[in-house]
Amino acid sequence: MELMEQICKLTDELEPHMLEIRHQIHERPELAFHEFETSALVKRELERMQVPYEESPCRPGIVAVVDSGKPGKLLMLRADMDALPVQEKTGLPYASKTPGVMHACGHDVHTSNLLTVAEILNRTKDQWSGKVKLVFQPAEEHGGGGREMIKAGLMEEVPDACFALHVETGKKGILAVSTGYLTAYSDGYTLTVHGKAAHSSTPEAGTDAIYIAASIVTALHGMMSRNLSPMEHSTLNIGLISGGSAANIIADEVEMSLMMRNLSKEARDVMCSRIEKLAQGIAEAMGGSCDCDFHPGYAAVYNDKEFSGFVADTFRKHEKLLYGNFSWEQPKEWLETGEAPLLGAEDFGFYSQKAPSCMIWVGVCEDASKHSPEFCVDESYMKLCTRAMAMVAAEYLSRG
Question: Looking at the annotation, which residues are catalytic?
């Protein structure tokens, strides 16, 4: 039996166990950097498969390795494990048993899927070369677990390529393989405007921090249309302003929180520079001052053109096997390619800064959006995730 046929047979065989694991994870969701029960389940499953693993210094992350014993490439596969602070309203029999916490972004699918891929690759390792590093990452949603695992040494042995998938709402059964920027840089600023307090009957004795802050807000929104090319994909939002103590007092301090998103590093650098120069310059010109505290967020996911092309070609090459033996009909337009950037954030971007990478979207539901209490995956499409990831790994490592 050829390798890809064997992979498809194994996905069929292992599907019931994958669903059982997914249900266990879904029932016991855990927030960022607290995925200890999920991590323990991952370790038990890896031990059952006899796949060696290490606990990351960035707890509770797990890094496992399937080694063919033959020289070859190193491929890194990643899944995130954390849930969201959402009260589930799906009514599923395996719904969350933890009040206020839910797997509303499909990370339970990612984790159970990667465990299944690990078993498939371990059973077929005599048919490919090199090794696969399996990363079970904490804190994708709030905390940058990918960044922290890399800081802790995850990339000391730089992989030849990194691959991940994310379940997506939209047309079910679709595989989307984009090239170039997939998601945006997501960063924040806290701007603290300092003025001088005075009674409103003597405004000349004070420096109005609220007035300064209002002028800064207007200037920052104008910056978007005058300092960035209209071809850039960038947004800026000032979502929180607080200051003042009473209606009859000139405010001496205002704090503003803003979020900016940029597809390119160049646009990000321009925006950072202009935010600080405008805020500080306006404040000084109006008799006050402004502190600008930058909060670096997630790096943009960049899908390497060559590796992403390889991924799409792999799917085309094995289309019949990829979509064989499902209870649903293969979509006519099943593969989406090209550039399709989003301004959302994903910490797989930190991986893509270190090695050629590709993250794909897999359509698994058409109703509620991710992060909503009603988000519900159609489990009959999970096997497509498994086949897609296992086939990419096997094809990549079979080429030497």
Answer: 298, 379
